[in-house]
UniProtKB/TrEMBL annotation:
Family recorded in the similarity comment: Belongs to the myotilin/palladin family.
GO MF terms held by the record: actin binding; cell-cell adhesion mediator activity
InterPro entries: Ig-like_dom, Ig-like_dom_sf, Ig-like_fold, Ig_I-set, Ig_sub, Ig_sub2
Purpose: Component of a complex of multiple actin cross-linking proteins. Involved in the control of myofibril assembly and stability at the Z lines in muscle cells.
UniProt region (Disordered), positions on chain: 17-57
Listed name of the protein: Myotilin
Cellular compartments annotated: Cell membrane, Sarcolemma; Cytoplasm, Cytoskeleton; Cytoplasm, Myofibril, Sarcomere, Z line
Originating organism: Sapajus apella (Brown-capped capuchin)
């Protein structure tokens, strides 16, 4: 195979082209090196396994400050309920997370837990929310590159105290005349205010009528007013008070008597029958019955007739 020999001029041209190519490669390499370079404030050189440090064996490690990707919103929770605050944070290395309530560190205990899921979701859990849990919560995430914070407010709605109904005083049994008005009164204490049910002989009493009305005030006083009482209103009345905490009942008696008329009927005349007594019959025949039953008097009469007298010597 024939080879072409280069003269002095051709050889110079070839070397010049190679120099231009080397210059372009060098510029491109420097440009890529400058683009991949990381600021020294966030780069650490790690020694090789051989214990020597040089430019070729140095391993560059990057740091990223924490950044919250997801944060919870302000919350209002009823006392005694379950509550959970979820958030996500990024950073390299993985940041350490801590919580503060009104400036004081929040510690994990039986009612407060801090967990992290496999997907990197952080959670602050309240098993049972208490009134003391209310306030401003500050979450702080730190690593070698920096820190980040966010604040969330938790409002705790106080649990309403409940108390079962109880009678302060109970309705008293009453006796009235037909046509009169009567009040059956009692006072009940309960939180929240109870619902009231009245029964007469186990049948519900119909309120808001022309004759029967029910009144109740803020102090718990209850009045059942019955106007123009009649015989049908008589019987056993039961009042029941019911709320979410319990129930209580009480019974009372209402007696209705007829109103007396203005004119009283004339009393019946009694017939007196004559008495047929044996003693009266004997007396009618001239015998002294009393004297017959008095032996001492009869002895004195017989002694006087016979002239006998009592001797003092005997």
């Amino acid at each position: 195979m024939a080879r072409r020999l280069l003269g002095p001029q051709n050889a110079a041209a070839v070397f010049h082209a190679q120099d231009d190519s080397d210059t372009q490669d060098s510029q491109q390499h420097n440009s890529e090196h400058a683009r991949l370079q990381v600021p020294t404030s966030q780069v650490r050189s790690r020694s090789s396994s051989r214990g020597t440090v040089n430019d070729q064996d140095a391993i560059q490690e990057k740091f990223y400050p924490p950044r919250f990707i997801q944060v919870p919103e302000n919350m209002s929770i009823d006392e005694g309920r379950f509550c959970r605050m979820d958030f996500k944070v990024s950073g390299l290395p993985a940041p350490d997370v801590s919580w503060y309530l009104n400036g004081r560190p929040v510690q994990s205990d039986d009612l407060h837990k801090m967990i992290v899921s496999e997907k990197g979701l952080h959670s602050l859990i309240f098993e049972v929310v208490r009134a003391s849990d209310a306030g401003d919560y500050v979450c702080v995430a730190k690593n070698r590159a920096g820190e980040a914070t966010f604040t969330v407010q938790l409002d705790v709605l106080a649990k309403e105290h409940k108390r079962a109904p109880m009678f302060i005083y109970k309705p008293q049994s009453k006796k009235v005349l037909e046509g009169d008005s009567v009040k059956l009164e009692c006072q009940i204490s309960a939180i929240p205010p109870p619902k009231l049910f009245w029964k007469r002989n186990n049948e519900m009493v119909q309120f808001n009528t022309d004759r029967i009305s029910l009144y109740q005030d803020n102090t718990g006083r209850v009045t059942l007013l019955i106007k123009d009482v009649n015989k049908k209103d008589a019987g056993w009345y039961t009042v029941s008070a019911v709320n979410e905490a319990g129930v209580t009942t009480c019974n009372t008696r209402l007696d209705v008597t007829a109103r007396p008329n203005q004119t009283l009927p004339a009393p019946k005349q009694l017939r007196v029958r004559p008495t047929f007594s044996k003693y009266l019959a004997l007396n009618g025949k001239g015998l002294d019955v009393k004297q017959a039953f008095n032996p001492e008097g009869e002895f004195q009469r017989l002694a006087a007739q016979s002239g006998l007298y009592e001797s003092e010597e005997l």
